[in-house]
Amino acid sequence: MSVRELVVLGTASQVPTRHRNHNGYLLRWDGEGLLFDPGEGTQRQMLRAGAAAHDLNRICVTHFHGDHSLGLAGVIQRINLDKVPHRITAHYPRSGQRFFDRLQYATAYRETVALTQAPVDADGVLATTPAYTLEARRLSHPVESYGYRLVEPDARRMLPDRLAAHGIKGPDVGRLQREGVLGGVRVEDVSETRRGQRFAFVMDTRLCDGVHALAEGCDLLVIESTFLDEDAGLAAEYGHLTAGQAARVARDAGVRHLVLTHFSQRYTDSDEFERQAREAGFEGELTVAHDLLRVPLPKRR
User: Fold this and answer.
1) Taking a C-beta distance cutoff of 8 angstroms, is the pair 92, 101 a contact?
2) The pTM is what?
3) Contact call for residues 72 and 39 (beta carbons, < 8 A)
4) Cα(119)–Cα(122) distance, integer angstroms
5) What is the largest CA-CA distance in the chain?
6) Does 209 participate in catalysis according to the annotation?
7) DSSP-assigned letter for residue 26
8) What does the pLDDT read at residue 87?
9) 33, 157, 229, 293: most buried, per Cβ within 10 A?
10) Is the pLDDT assigned to residue 1 strictly greater than 60?
11) From CA 208, how far away is CA 212, in angstroms rounded?
12) 276 three-class SS
């Protein structure tokens, strides 16, 4: 049975707290697993969440600040320790190649897995599979940073009433789907477009074109809201978003489910992030993330 869900491994910005681990987010997309921004402690958080190295197919790093990448060393060594048999591809800003190399070989270990490296150096498509297209967009942060977006291909939804009207049933339905036409009836005559699901991951950034492009039409948007609105000046100075800014992005982009995360240690009341997001006009489903939370993708439209 296919599963599409976000497993939140950590939600703290800059430093972990007693209640929040460094960043870490695992997207389960049917039979694949995409690990985003593995901060320090990610390997242990995966254990607590019931996730294993064998679950990973891609690792996507937005940028090389420690809270988004220090866990790479442990995760990569665990992949090798467990001798993961399938290919795992790592995406990260090409400008941070030296940091990736240092983390990959931070200590001695037995290398048993050839990790595929696919650095990012421009906006565009990173990978296309039957299940999704993975894209990247440049963000605005003091160091080079990219956000990621998954787009499922559109498909066809068969309409029972139209099938019945044309007398098509049983094995003929599958035949029509495979061949596109059956007895003069086109698949378009008895179906409608089923929009593919969309997911985006937006971390450390100021407002910029990339943020809006990533968020557009998303079913699930994971986005940083490091600061509350009263600290918008600090957010701009350090290259971050506020809760209100993130919510307005989601509102304008037609996001269905908004997940706020990456919170500054200065705040102890997480309810305030939700209040400010609602004040900004976002009316969809809203989650203020906490560690080890599981967030399913919304049901198809």
Assistant:
1) no
2) 0.92
3) no
4) 10
5) 67
6) no
7) E
8) 97
9) 33
10) no
11) 7
12) helix
